[in-house]
From TrEMBL, chain A:
Lineage, broadest ranks: Bacteria, Pseudomonadati, Pseudomonadota, Alphaproteobacteria, Sphingomonadales
PANTHER family from the UniProt entry: ACETATE COA-TRANSFERASE SUBUNIT ALPHA, KETOACID-COENZYME A TRANSFERASE
Acyltransferase as UniProt keyword: no
Transferase among keywords: yes
Protein name: 3-oxoacid CoA-transferase, A subunit
Family that this chain belongs to: Belongs to the 3-oxoacid CoA-transferase subunit A family.
UniProtKB/TrEMBL annotation, chain B:
Keywords assigned by UniProt, alphabetized: Transferase
GO terms of molecular function: CoA-transferase activity
PANTHER family: KETOACID-COENZYME A TRANSFERASE (PTHR13707), SUCCINYL-COA:3-KETOACID COENZYME A TRANSFERASE SUBUNIT B-RELATED (PTHR13707:SF57)
InterPro entries linked to this entry: 3-oxoacid_CoA-transf_B, CoA_trans_fam_I, CoA_transf_AS, NagB/RpiA_transferase-like
Protein family according to the UniProt entry: Belongs to the 3-oxoacid CoA-transferase subunit B family.
Descriptive protein name: 3-oxoacid CoA-transferase, subunit B
Length: 233, 204
């Protein structure tokens, strides 16, 4: 069988990286982000990256690490707060930014991975994000045309995987990961735990979307807003 | 404000609460009412904040706060989460606002000239959720009315707001073709106080 499991991020990324490439990454905030593979791209020094990701990490974690090293040229995101270096580069014109409403971003990645080049949505009609885009009426309502997104490389973080590359995500760390996995010409999954067998009924991302796998060696899972209660839930 | 907004939620509702003050609405939902909270990062059935020893980095809400799951909880992908939102399956969303116009336009994501953080899921919520309730201070920090004839800030959505709950009053409209009507005053507030601090036209 095809051997999909690589020894580390560097070997999994080998031959896939080039300057000016587009990368789609799973994650919401700092939850479910491919920490180990981001370190690998940091080490490889690839530049001019267009990054499709809901958020841009924070200054010293997640995609923020690649921003700080000026490896990212453009972000396609829905929300980029909490990142001072991002703000500096954006305001000085060093970094391009395409804002996309969160649901539209999720659907653009899903559509791209499913071979759908565009779709109409009511989200954003009458706002800045619809400017310059085609509008169309359906049943008396106005919708805006949004395009599907694909990438040269997709990076995802999974909780469990088998050696075939079937993936299971954990709780709200699933977020954008299943869509990202479908949208890359090549998809690499970093996995918290390899298992011999997964329940076929419980697989979130089937192996057809996953070309390479590594064991995640960085699982810091930093929490952005640790919020607790004195009263047991 | 949060307590007043909570009274708008009915038994069996699926509800998305915005980040900030709207999150507090959860604390005021009557025990007799069964409401399922949805979070756009992919959780249907949000639980309360965890105790310190129950914190799990893989369970966060859309405000990136640690939370807990319930017996009813279902985790979904972001695409599935927004299918619930965009597809009209969520009964109500309670959101913050910078400005609301008398025609129900909402602005809550961008101040030109300042660093813009992005719309997040707000544009999807106002486009797809059945009923949009805005929770906001009646005037801004400089004392300017936030309920206006027309918004000055970029829109999150046009003609999307159904109810406005402020620290002074509650406005509601029958449907998205009707004007807003002043339906309640906060304790100690007069209709005159509200009129003086409102730019929008509304039915008294």
């Amino acid at each position: 069988m095809v051997q999909k499991i690589y020894s580390d991020a560097a070997s999994a990324l080998d031959g896939l990286l080039f300057d000016g490439m587009t990368i789609v990454a799973g994650g919401f905030g700092l939850c479910g982000i491919p920490e180990t593979l981001i370190d690998g791209i940091l080490a490889a020094g690839t530049t001019g990256i267009t990054a499709i990701s809901n958020n841009a990490g924070v200054d010293d974690f997640g995609l923020g690490l690649l921003l700080r090293r000026r490896q990212i040229k453009k972000m396609i995101s829905s929300y980029v707060g909490e990142n001072k270096e991002f703000e500096r580069q954006y305001l000085s014109g060093e970094l391009e930014l395409e804002f996309c409403p969160q649901g539209t971003l999720a659907e653009r990645i899903r559509a791209g991975g499913a071979g759908i080049p565009g779709f109409y949505t009511a989200t954003g009609v009458g706002t800045l994000v619809a400017e310059g885009k085609e509008l169309k009426e359906f049943g008396g309502m106005t919708y805006v045309l949004e395009t599907g997104l694909t990438a040269d490389l997709a990076l995802v973080k999974a909780w469990r995987a088998d050696r075939y590359g079937n993936l299971v995500f954990r709780k709200s760390a699933r977020n954008f990961n299943p869509m990202a996995a479908t949208a890359g010409k090549v998809t690499i999954a970093e996995v918290e735990e390899f298992v011999d067998e997964l329940d076929p009924d419980h697989i979130h991302t089937p192996s057809i979307y996953v070309q390479r796998l590594i064991a995640a060696t960085r699982n810091e899972k930093r929490i952005e807003r640790r919020t607790t209660s004195a009263v047991p839930a | 404000m949060a307590a007043r907004a909570a009274r708008e939620l009915d038994d069996g509702f699926f509800v998305n609460l915005g980040i900030g003050i709207p999150t507090l609405v959860a604390n005021y939902i009557d025990d007799d009412i069964d409401v399922t909270l949805q979070s756009e990062n992919g959780i249907l059935g949000l639980g309360p904040f965890p105790t310190e020893d129950a914190v799990d980095a893989d369970i966060i809400n859309a405000g990136k706060q640690t939370i807990t799951e319930l017996r009813r909880t279902a985790y979904v992908s972001s695409a599935d989460s927004f299918a619930m939102i965009r597809g009209g399956h969520i009964d109500a969303s309670i959101l913050g606002a910078m400005e609301v116009s008398q025609g129900g336009d909402l602005s809550n994501w961008m101040v030109p000239g300042k660093m813009v953080k992005g719309p997040g899921g707000a544009m999807d919520l106002v486009a797809g959720v059945k009923r949009i309730i805005v929770l906001m201070d009646h005037v801004d920090k400089a004392g300017n009315p936030k309920f206006r004839r027309e918004n000055t800030l970029p829109y999150t959505g046009r003609n999307v707001v159904d109810m406005i709950v402020t620290d002074l009053a509650v406005f509601e409209r029958e449907n998205r073709s009707s004007p807003f009507r002043l339906i309640e005053l906060a304790p100690g507030v007069t209709a005159q106080d509200v009129a003086e601090r409102t730019e929008a036209e509304y039915l008294a």
